[in-house]
Amino acid sequence: MQFANFGQLYLVTYDIPADRRRRKTAHLLEGYGQRVQYSVFECRLDAQRYRELQKRLQHHFDLSEDHLRFYPMTEHTLGQIEVWGGAKPAQLQDLIL
User: Fold this and answer.
1) Annotated binding-site residue numbers for Mg(2+)
2) pLDDT tens by residue, 44-69
3) Could you give all domains of the chain from N- to C-terminal order, each with its CATH number?
4) 67-78: per-residue pLDDT in tens?
5) What 3 state SS string does the chain have?
6) Residue that wins the pLDDT comparison between 14 and 93
7) Binding-site positions
8) Which residue from 33, 43, 72, 76 has the least number of CB within 10 angstroms?
9) CA distance 88 to 23
10) The whole model's pTM is what?
């Protein structure tokens, strides 16, 4: 499978203790990818959208309390994803014709 034209797939995770910041973060991430767990999103982003997302997240992120991680996924790891229950990873669904 070739994913180069679709951007990099990131697994985005967060742990945010404040309800308001957590809700804002989730709402923002919903515009960039698919929620797969309560605080885990799969987002396929080109370089511009990746920078845009990071910039937007910074506006309501507290580095002293909040934790946010971006895990880039390779084509190799995409082929090894196992899903038990729920929907297939969004980016794989979008590419299956």
Assistant:
1) 15
2) 999 999 999 999 999 888 999 999 99
3) 4-95 (3.30.70.240)
4) 999 999 987 887
5) CCCHHHCEEEEEEEECCCHHHHHHHHHHHHCCCEEEECCEEEEEECHHHHHHHHHHHHCCCCCCCCEEEEEEECHHHHCCCCCCCCCCCHHHHHHCC
6) 14
7) 15
8) 76
9) 24
10) 0.80
What residue has token string 């934790």? 67
Q: How many residues are listed for the chain in this entry? A: 97
With tokens 């309501």, the residue in question is 60
